[in-house]
User: Which sequence fits this backbone?
C-alpha cells in the first residue's frame, strides 16, 4: 500500500512538472519557428534564428529596450541593497522610539496595489520632468523593492550573535568595521537572496514601465506589446523576445543557486 501511494505521489509530481513546463517548452519551440509553423502542433520543423535577428531590427529595436531593462534593474539593486542593509542593521541592533511602528509601516507598503500608486507617480514625475526616463523607473522600483529587502536582510542580521560584534567592539573595531568584517560576510546569503528578488521584480515590472514610459525608457516587458501586425500577434517574435527575457533569470539562478536556496530556507524563519 505504501508503494502504491509513493507511485501516486510520483505521478502527481510528474504531472505538475509537465503542466509547469509546457508553456516554457512551447515558447522555446515557437522562438525557432516560422510564423506559419507556430499555429501547427508539430515537433519536427526546420528551426530558424531569423526571429532573434528580427526582434533587434526596426521597428522593434529590442536591443534598446534590453539596455533599458538591464540598466534599471542593476542600478536598482546597486542602490537598494546598501540602503536596505543599513536600515535592517539599524532595526536589528538599535532600539529606537517608534521602531516597531516604522517597521510595520515599511512592510505595509508591500500590500498597496501597484495600480493605486502608479497615478501619483505619473503626476509627480510629470511635474519633475522625469517621465519616460530610466531615473524615474529606478525611483519607482526602489520604492517597491527596498521594503522587502529590509525585511529579508533583517531576518539574517537577527540571527547573527551579538556577542561576536560586542567582542570586536571591545577589541577596538569601529561599528563600520564590525559591519564590514563580521555582519556582511555572515549575512551574505541574505544579501544575495534579497538582491535576486530585487532584480527579478525590477526586470519583470510591466505596469509602471507601461504608464511611466513612452519611447526613450521603454523596457523589455512593455516592448512585447509591439509584436503585432495586420495578420495578428507575431507569436514567433513574441516567443523569441520571451526567451531573451527569461535567459538572464535562468543564468542568474544557476550562478547563485547555492546562496539563493540557503537564503530562502534560513533568512525568513529566524
Assistant:
Amino acid at each position: 500500500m505504501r508503494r502504491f501511494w509513493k507511485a501516486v505521489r510520483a505521478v502527481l509530481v510528474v504531472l505538475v512538472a509537465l503542466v509547469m513546463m509546457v508553456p516554457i517548452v512551447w515558447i522555446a519551440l515557437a522562438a525557432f519557428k516560422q510564423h506559419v509553423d507556430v499555429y501547427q502542433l508539430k515537433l519536427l520543423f526546420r528551426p530558424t534564428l531569423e526571429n532573434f535577428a528580427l526582434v533587434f531590427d526596426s521597428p522593434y529595436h529590442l536591443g534598446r529596450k534590453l539596455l533599458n531593462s538591464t540598466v534599471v534593474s542593476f542600478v536598482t539593486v546597486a542602490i537598494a541593497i546598501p540602503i536596505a542593509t543599513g536600515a535592517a542593521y539599524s532595526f536589528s541592533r538599535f532600539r529606537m522610539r517608534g521602531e516597531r511602528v516604522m517597521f510595520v509601516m515599511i512592510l505595509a507598503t508591500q500590500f498597496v496595489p501597484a495600480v493605486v500608486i502608479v497615478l501619483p507617480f505619473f503626476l509627480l514625475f510629470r511635474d519633475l520632468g522625469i517621465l519616460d526616463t530610466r531615473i524615474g523607473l529606478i525611483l519607482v522600483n526602489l520604492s517597491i523593492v527596498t521594503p522587502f529587502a529590509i525585511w529579508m536582510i533583517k531576518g539574517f542580521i537577527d540571527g547573527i550573535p551579538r556577542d561576536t560584534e560586542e567582542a570586536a567592539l571591545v577589541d577596538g573595531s569601529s561599528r563600520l568595521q564590525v559591519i564590514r568584517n563580521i555582519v556582511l560576510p555572515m549575512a551574505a546569503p541574505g544579501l544575495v537572496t534579497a538582491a535576486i528578488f530585487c532584480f527579478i521584480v525590477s526586470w519583470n515590472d510591466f505596469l509602471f514601465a507601461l504608464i511611466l514610459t513612452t519611447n526613450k525608457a521603454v523596457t523589455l516587458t512593455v516592448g512585447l506589446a509591439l509584436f503585432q501586425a495586420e495578420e495578428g500577434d507575431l507569436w514567433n517574435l513574441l516567443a523569441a523576445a520571451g526567451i531573451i527575457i527569461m535567459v538572464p533569470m535562468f543564468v542568474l539562478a544557476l550562478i547563485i543557486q547555492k546562496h539563493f536556496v540557503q537564503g530562502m530556507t534560513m533568512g525568513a524563519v529566524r
The longest strand covers residues 228-229. The chain has a mean pLDDT of 84. DSSP finds 13 helices and two strands in the chain.
